[in-house]
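thought: user wants a sequence for this fold. calling inverse folding tool.
action: design(structure=
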C-alpha cells in the first residue's frame, strides 16, 4: 500500500496561463505544473516563457508531445523523428528542459485492435517510447512518461523490449468508467510502478459546473472529520483512489478554488466504500443488475 502524501499538480489545460495563478500556486505550496505542446493553440510553452519565465525554475514542469499543428487542426503522430523534434522544440520554447515529457494519448495513432494489428501497434508504440527514452538520455528532459485518456488499448501492447516509462498519467475520479480504471491498474502492475509514478488528471470530468456534482454527494467516500469538506472537495479527495494514484493534476484559473482543493487533502478516504464502488462499476459494465 502506498504511503506517499497526495500531491497536486496545477494543470494548464484551458488555463489562461496568468501570472497571478502561478504565484498563488507557489504560495499554496503547489510546485508542479503540467502543460502540453498543443495547449493554447500550440502556444503554451511560448506564453509561459514570456509571462512567467522567471517563475519556471521554482516549478517541476511536465509537458506532452504527440500532437502537431496542421493548418486549421491538430494531428496526432507517433513518428519517432517528429517526437524527438517536439521534445527539442519544447526545451527551446520553455528555455529550460522539462522535468517530465509525456507521450500524449498514444492510443490516438494506433490502429483498431485485432490479432493482425497487435504486432504492428506494439512496434509503433515501442519506437515512440524509444524516441522519448533517447531524448531523456540526451538530457532533453529529466524523465519521460505516458499520458493516456483511454489506456485500454495499451494493455496488450506492453512488450519486454519496450522501454518502461517513469510516469503514467490517466484519468481519475468518480466519472471514470470501470474499463479505464482497470486498464490503469493493469498498466501500473505491468510496469511495476510505485510511489509517485502514477498520476491522475481531470478529476471533475472537465468541469466542476457539470450538473452531476449537484446530484451526488461524494462525501460518502470519506470518513471521520472529512465529512466537513464540500462535495467538490470530497470528489477531489476520492479521485486519488480511482484509480490509486499519488499525484493529481487539476486545472483552474481561480486561486481560491485551488486553495479549496489543497484543503481537501486533509480528508480521509473510506477504502471500503471505494472498493464497493469499483465492484458496482464492474457489475454495471458487465450488464449485471446493481
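)
observation: tool returned 290 residues.
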Amino acid at each position: 500500500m502506498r504511503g506517499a502524501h497526495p500531491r497536486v499538480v496545477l494543470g494548464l489545460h484551458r488555463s489562461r496561463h496568468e501570472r497571478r495563478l502561478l504565484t498563488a500556486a507557489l504560495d499554496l505550496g503547489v510546485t508542479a505544473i503540467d502543460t502540453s505542446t498543443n495547449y493554447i493553440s500550440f502556444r503554451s510553452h511560448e506564453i509561459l516563457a514570456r509571462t512567467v519565465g522567471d517563475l519556471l525554475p521554482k516549478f517541476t514542469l511536465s509537458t506532452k508531445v504527440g500532437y502537431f499543428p496542421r493548418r486549421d487542426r491538430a494531428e496526432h503522430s507517433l513518428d519517432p523523428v517528429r517526437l524527438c523534434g517536439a521534445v527539442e522544440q519544447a526545451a527551446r520554447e520553455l528555455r529550460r528542459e522539462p522535468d517530465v515529457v509525456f507521450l500524449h494519448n498514444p492510443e490516438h495513432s494506433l490502429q483498431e485492435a485485432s490479432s493482425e494489428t497487435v504486432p504492428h501497434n506494439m512496434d509503433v508504440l515501442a519506437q515512440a517510447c524509444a524516441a522519448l527514452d533517447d531524448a531523456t538520455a540526451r538530457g532533453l528532459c529529466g524523465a519521460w512518461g505516458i499520458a493516456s485518456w483511454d489506456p485500454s488499448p495499451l494493455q496488450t501492447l506492453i512488450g519486454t523490449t519496450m522501454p518502461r516509462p517513469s510516469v503514467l498519467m490517466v484519468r481519475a475520479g468518480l466519472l471514470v468508467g470501470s474499463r479505464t480504471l482497470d486498464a490503469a491498474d493493469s498498466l501500473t502492475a505491468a510496469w511495476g510502478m510505485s510511489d509517485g509514478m502514477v498520476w491522475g488528471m481531470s478529476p471533475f470530468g472537465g468541469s466542476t459546473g457539470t450538473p452531476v456534482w449537484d446530484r451526488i454527494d461524494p462525501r460518502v467516500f470519506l470518513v471521520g472529520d472529512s465529512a466537513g469538506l464540500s462535495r467538490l472537495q470530497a470528489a477531489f479527495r476520492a479521485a486519488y483512489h480511482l484509480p490509486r494514484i499519488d499525484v493529481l493534476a487539476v486545472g483552474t484559473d481561480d486561486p481560491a478554488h485551488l486553495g479549496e482543493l489543497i484543503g481537501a487533502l486533509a480528508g480521509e478516504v473510506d477504502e471500503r466504500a471505494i472498493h464497493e464502488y469499483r465492484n458496482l462499476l464492474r457489475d454495471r459494465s458487465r450488464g449485471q443488475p446493481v
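thought: summarizing for user.
answer: Here is the designed sequence. The mean pLDDT is 92.
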